[in-house]
Amino acid sequence: DLDENLQRAFHKYLELRGITPMTTNFLHEYMINKDSREYLFWLNKLKDFVKQ
């Protein structure tokens, strides 16, 4: 965990550059979903490999 002052400064830095909390929340959710999709894809490939 980052120091609270550093977190606030970083959030301010992002906001000054037009990156809003809504944008960061979207990116976070997108990354989680992407990881899940990639993991499922890998599991399916593994399943196909084991079947052979």
TrEMBL record:
Gene3D superfamilies linked: Mitochondrial glycoprotein
InterPro entries on file: MAM33, MAM33_sf
GO cellular component term of the entry, any: mitochondrial matrix
Annotated signal peptide: none
This protein's name: Uncharacterized protein
Native source organism of the sequence: Aegilops tauschii subsp. strangulata (Goatgrass)
